[in-house]
Amino acid sequence: METKVEIQEPAVKAEIKTVSRKKANLKKILTYSAFVGPALIFFLVIQIIPFLMGIYYSFTSWNGVSSVVEWVGLENYIKIFKNDPKFFDSFIFTTKFMLASVIISNLLGFGLALLLNAALKSRNLLRTVFFIPNVIGGLLLGFIWQFIFVKGFTAIGNLTDLSVFKLPWLGDETTAFWGIVIVFAWQISGYMMVIYIAALQGVDQTLLEAARIDGASSWTLLTKIIIPLILPAFTICFFLTISMAFKIFDLNISLTGGGPFNSTQSVAINIYQEAFQNNRYGLGTAKSILFFLVVAIFTTVQVMMTKKREVEA
Amino acid sequence: MNPRYTKVTFLLEIIGIVLGVIFLIPFYFVIINSVKGFADILIDAAAWPQEFLFSNYLKVWDIINFPRAFWNSLIITVISNIGLVVISSMAAWKMVRTQGKFSKILFALFVSAMVIPFQTVMIPLMKLGGTLNLTNSIPGLIIMYFGFGVPLSLFLYHGFIKTVPIEIEESARIDGCSQFGVFWRIVFPLLKPITVTVVILNTLWIWNDYLLPLLVLQDAELRTIPLATSSFFAQYTKQWDMGLAALVMGITPVVIFFLFLQRHIIKGIAQGSIK
């Protein structure tokens, strides 16, 4: 008896262990799903599945309405590359716009941050002022500035007699381009300012003090100490401005409607029109996949480039 | 550390104030002209109004059914925010606390989706939304905001939770608290700073969003504030008197929201971006 029990016991124990372990594992999976599941399901249904469907539709001639979806292989992509100059124009506009906006809004944002990092009495008030355009959506900002360009500038022009204010701001291809850049910079630079201020406040003051005692000029302090120390902030700000400028839609819809002569049509507007106004969903999704690739490449390259410099610093 | 207020600081102060005034000039033009008659605007847009007309506001209030649009925007923004906070914080916590390959891969998937531009998914999403009955309905739109908002919200929570010490959670578990109990009673209150940031970022985005509501909501009854305002501009182009009143009404709610919470908003934006 005694020996029997001694032999049996570990076996029984082991069995109980595997059963309870299985139960415990199941319970673990269940709680994991209960916590992560909801977020994952919404994310999959709203973003990942449509993304995969998009890849599929980009190889079809689907018009968005018919239930028959015909596979056409690479035809859409060939069409885009061969005979869609409007799409390329919109890409060129978007890229030019992105470059101009990234430079201007970051210069302005960083300048404002440096200014408001000084011990100004009005600095909290001014931070609020510069940030306000960000809380208003791009669409309404566009309408506001439409009025400023059309009526406001004329009024200022009559008062000051400056020729800048007498240009046909939204009626000419070049000025319309710069008009959108101005509005975008006006909106975004306050946001960039906030990020740069947060970074500037993290800079060790004793380091600057020491360099100043050693006779470094303000310019040297800025370029040799401050900027290298806050490179992570530049990475973030560039990433944000690049992706925001690339996806621009609301602002040109309300400001110029893509005109004059489609000169301010962004890629986002071009895709929207192709799908929902021309009812060419297949072609539209093919364009949107190309758009995704370009955005992904631009942002990854930029993050990699600035990250690398961060390590060096 | 308070440096002395020198002549240079004074000069910078003047520059700052001048720049601030220039920044605000567009608002001056919009507000001042929104209470003028049409003819008065055409004569001189920079001048002070000859008489204050509030009839522009009354007319626009009815034409765009402002209370309705305001209510729609409010309900969409509030419910989307609540949902996003709940699902993202829970998921992020579990993913941080369960070490392993699966959590890592999942996190990478969520984060990499942030590069997908909305235009890439919008066309098939409308097809899918039609099949799932999500189009032309406010609950459907809210569900879409859940899906689009998860990556950033989860990313922010994930970064924050990594800095929260695990010891309190462990002792609560030993005392017999369930996982849900631990999360809602102990962890969630600790996440308040990042929750504020998540809510602010999502509110500004959802309240101002134009393209998604434009695609999803067709009935005039369901219109949000950006949709209502833009419909006004499409119908009555160049009717500046009423158009400007519509704009002032459109931007007032979010500007008030901002002015009340500006300290938190500015702090939250800085926090959300630097993580």
The H/E string of chain A reads: HHHHHHHHHHHH
Number of strands of chain A: 0
- Rg of chain A is 28 Å
Termini distance of chain B? 26 Å
Strand content of chain A: under 5%
Indicate the proportion of strand residues of chain B. Answer: under 5%
The most extensive interface between chains reads: A-B, 95 and 94 residues
Main sheet of chain A, how many strands, which sense, barrel?
none
Structural class category of chain A: mainly alpha
The helicity of chain B comes to: over 70%
Shape estimate of chain B: globular
Largest sheet of chain B: none
Q: What is the distance, rounded to the nearest whole angstrom, between the alpha carbons of the first and last residues of chain A?
A: 75 Å
Into which percent range does the helicity of residues of chain A fall?
A: over 70%
Please provide a written account of the structure.
The complex is a heterodimer of chains A (313) and B (275). Chain A is flat. In chain A, α3 (85-117) crosses α11 (267-277). Chain A has helices at residues 2-57, 75-83, 85-117, 123-131, 138-160, 173-201, 205-213, 218-229, 231-246, 250-255, 267-277, 281-312. Chain A starts with a helix and ends with a helix. Chain A has 313 residues and is mainly alpha-helical. Chain B contains 13 helices and no strands. Chain B has helices at residues 7-34, 38-43, 55-63, 66-97, 101-112, 118-131, 138-161, 167-174, 179-190, 192-208, 211-216, 225-235, 240-274. Chain B is globular, with a radius of gyration of 24 Å.
